[in-house]
Every structure is written in C-alpha cells, then in structure tokens.
Give the backbone structure.
Amino acid sequence: MPAALDTATLIDLAQRAEASAPGPCACTRTPLDGWQSQPISLDETQLREIGTLLTEDDPEPTVAEYLPGKTTYWSNDAPIAPRYFPYNRCSVWECLSCARLYLRYTEGGGYFVDRRIRALRLALIEDIPL
C-alpha cells in the first residue's frame, strides 16, 4: 500500500511540485484543473504513485463533500479538502515528464467505473475538520 499522506505533507508536496513545474503542461490535451474522467491522451506510464489520502484506520471514509459558496464537484476552483469526498479516497500521482502532481480515484456507480483525475493545486488545499 502506498504511504499515507496527511494534509501537511500534501501541502509540502504541492509546494515543491509547483516550484519545479512553473510553466504550462503539455502532457495531456485535456485541462485537469477540475475533476475529469481520465483522458486517453494522458500516458499512464508517465505517472508514478507517491502516496494516498485514504487512511488505513478508516474503513469507510465519509461521502460528505466540502463545497462552499457556489462551487460544485466539477468546479475548477473547488477546494481540495483531504478529509472530504472524493479526496479522502484519492491517491497522489506525479507526472515523470513534467513533475506535476495529480489526484486520482475510481468513481463507482451502479453500472460503471470511472477513473477520475484532477491536478493538485496548492492554492486550493484546505485543511477543514469533519
């Protein structure tokens, strides 16, 4: 199992990644500022898992979302709140090509499974208690 990451570690990783990858990304043609189904244009072999926000001592993480104001799940400016859904089910991945970090999880619906991905942006991380 990948290393468990707390919010402080996530913030540190995001700071380092943003400092090392200041320019635009050319790794995918699909913008990943908000949640997206993982695009086929993103080469999975260039991603490396570096940790998880899923905690081992919580077998059933909350499905409560933290969406203040008029943000929605799909909003590019929706906060990244690690204790809330879907972040509490995410793994953190690094692009070996551009050094950016991404959050990924699998959304399971009644008749489908959808791998979702979102760029990790430092300015959006919020450490909000449940």
Observations:
- Helices lie at 7-20.
- The chain has one domain: 7-123.
- The chain has a mean pLDDT of 91.
- Residues 7-123 form one domain.
